[in-house]
Amino acid sequence: MLELIDKKRSGSYYTKPEIVSLILDLVGYTIDKPLFNQSLLEPSTGAGAFLVEAVDRLLDSTEHHHGKEVFSNDKKIFSILSKAITSIEIDSNKYSTLCDNFKKLLCNRGLSDNVSEKLVKEWVINENFLLWNKPVVQRYNYIVGNPPYIRIENVEDGLEKKYRNLYKTLFDRADIYVAFIEHSLELLDSGGKLNFICTDRFTKNQYGKKIRNFINDNFRVLHFMDIHNSQPFVEEVSAYPCIFTIENAQRGAGRTLRMDCVTNSYLDTAKNYLLYGKQPTTGDVETHKIDEWFKGTDPWIVNGKNAQLILNKLEKEHPVITDAPHFIHVGIGVATGAKDVYVINPNKIDIEPDILLPVVTKDDIAKGIIEWRGYYVINPYLEDGSLVSLDDYPKLKKHLIKHEELLKSRSTAKSNPTKWYKTIDRIFPERLEQQKLLIPDIKSKNLIVKDKGEYYPEHSLYYVTAGSWDIDALQAILVSSVVKFFIWSYATKMRGDYLRYQAQYLKKIRLPSDVSENDVYNLKRLHQEKDFVGIDHIAQRLFNLSDEELLIIQDLVQ
Known about the structure:
37% helix, alpha/beta, 9-stranded mixed β-sheet, 21 helices, 4-stranded antiparallel β-sheet, Rossmann fold
């Protein structure tokens, strides 16, 4: 358990050997080549999963081209191998263990103790990869690995600022692995290839837009494997992984593949398709060839050319949900930083009623309607945004002081010590009375629930206002397959193919402008009747889609 906690803190999750083998195959690091004349970099070595396989292949290649007797010639073997591998590990304890283990590996292959130690010291470097080789001095033919997953806000302040200055793709709340991708691509020699296994979040979400732009405009994406429903790591983790190969070459066609199983037979299938174009014989592996990879900050919609063409058409012909003529507001419920303190049941905790607002959470709408469980959110704000005086609210004061230590430990309280009982987000009571549609963050279907203006949304829910739309007609069009296609295109998928309905994706939804009174009537009627097929047909006409385009969309989002 302690080991797993340590791995989570360091962002380290170790890759299964069969995945490592596939990745090395995909970049072409194979023993038929004179690997000793080329260079391989592993930027975050960890336990050495990639390094073990790479060293084995390097030695096999050397033996194949020079004969086994070369291993007994210290001077020659050091000269041949010394520049072939570079392995970076930031953790000094892991570094020491790596050096010991790889010295033994080399000795077991017939190299002397002396030259084994010299090679390991040449290969394995105890440095922070993101600060190493800056500015770039040395470049590599192959870069492979599994970069760490650490949110940028969890990095110590001094380093965070330094990283953001060095890596322009560290945008918004990006993860450290984004900087690993950027720096690794900087280090690729012309014609060199990189392959990483990492989370697929950057391919569609907001914080990934700059790294997508960097890749899309400067490199060629050769392969992309969507394996977010599989478990390619030694420990079971929810990392939503993908595997991708990028070449330092002009833009060109790329092959994509999706599968939910990573057994050896499936990995062989993936290898044969991605490298050689051999189509799989099993129906549960989805493949596509993308003739021209995406441009600029475009999300990576890797399920085929048709999906991209349909999305481009919809984006060109219809305005986004927040713009004219729709003027729909997209928001997220209140974040308190201490839900158990601020969201209360008055039957259990006695608080002055005039500072309580009925609150709705994702658990209240799980069945598609609001089944309110009687919870309220404490509103500690006056109309002007200042905090209420606790002396004016003795019951509230007693409740908050009971949790004072917890509340003062929150970041929002540390930055405003005199306002230690403020919520992260300010609460606006007028929001309570607005009619709105409530949308949970993670879900498998278009669950959109109407609030007539009776509840304040909590942080587990996003909400949209009606804008210029009839709110019931808006609810109907939002559950259509066409609107789900927007979320499917932009949002990252969770395990089990659940989609994240976050504000950044909801704001990208396009809506038709020319909606008649008859359309409004029929949308409302069909939604009341739960006739989602009928809703899709109205949406098809309003969005100007052909029968074939609608079928493609329905097939993708079902």
